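Okay, can you check this protein?
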Amino acid sequence: VGDDGEPTRNPVCRAVLEFIGGGSRGADIRSRFEGSPFGWSRDAVDGALQVLLVAGIIRAHDERGRVVNPGELERKAVGKALFKVEAPGPTTAQRIQIRKLFQKVGCLARPNEELMMVPQFLEKMGELAARAGGEAPKPAEPDTSKLNEIRRTGGNEQLLSLFGCRDELDGAIDQWTDLAARIEANWPNWTALQELLRHAGSLKAAEEARGQAEVIKRQRMLLSEPDLVKPLLKSLEDAIRSDFCLQQKRYSDELQERMNELNADLDWQQLNEEKRASILKDCDIIQAPRPALGTFEELVAALKRYPLVGWGDRIDALSGRFARAREMAARAVEPQMQTVHIPRRTLKSEQDINAWVKEVSDQLKIALNKGPVVIR
C-alpha cells in the first residue's frame, strides 16, 4: 500500500493490534473488521496480520497451541489461529549471544533474523543428542526436555528463553559432541564383536565373550574406561583364528590318512594319474582350504565361506567320499564290478552274529556268481 513506516504506526495495523490485546482468534479479528463500522476487505485484514507477524509484533498459535512461523501460516488456517501480542524482543547484546550459541552447531543467523534460525538450531541439537546416546551398549540419550520447552514457546519469548538457558545449552553442545565422537570411535569394535559372535558357534571362548558382551550391553558400558570391548574383540578374534587353523589341521590329517589308505588300494594303483585326478574331483576330495586369516576382514570372509560349525561335517564326509573313490577305482579296473550293501543289524548275542554273518555270506556268494564285488 506504499507505507514504508513502522507497522505499529500504520492505522490498519494499529487497529488490528489494539483489538488483539491479550489474544484473539483470526475468525474474530476478521469478523470485527470486515463488519460495520469498518467494512474492510479480507485482504486488508489478513495482510495486516501478516505484516504484524513478520515484524515480530504478534505471534500465531495453531489449534494445538503450537507457535506457527509467519511463512508457514496458510491463509485457510488464519481463522482458527490464535494471535497474541508479542513480548518485547531481546536486546542487541542478547541477540549476539544467541547467534554465538547458534554458531556452535553450524547455524549462521544474520542480525535480527535469529528467530528464523531457531527451528534449524533445535533440529541440529536434536540430531546431536541422538548421536550422543541410543541403543545399548551406548549411553542413554541425553535429556532434551529443555529443547522441548523452547519449542513450545514462540517469537520473542522463544528468543528470550534461548538466551536464558544459553549457558546450559552451550555446555550440552560440548558434552554431547564429545559423547558422539567417542561413540563413533568405539561403535565399530562393538559391531565387529557381534559379527564374530555370530560366526563363533559353540566355541568356549565365544560363550565367555557372549557373557561379557551381555554385561557391557546391559550396563551400557561402551564408553567405559578402560575400554572393555576392544580387548574382548581381540581375544575372541585370536581364539576363532586358532580354532579355524585347528579345524584345518584336523581336516588335513584325516584327508592324508584316508589318502594313504586309498594309495594302498590295489585297484587305485592300477589307474593312471589322469584317471585318479578325475575320480578325486568327482568325489569332491580336495585339500583343506587355506584362506587368508591375517586381518579381521580376512577372518570374517573365511568364516562366511567356511563356517566353524561346518568343519565337523566336512571331516565326517571324507569317509563317504573316499569309499566312493575306491568304488569308482574298482569299476574303472573291473567294469562289471557290483556294489553290495552290507545289511546293518543290532547284534545282541552270538546267535545274532552267526545269523548276520551267514546272511552277508549268502549275499556275497550270490553276487559273486554275477561278477566282481565291492562292498559298501
In short: The mean pLDDT is 91.
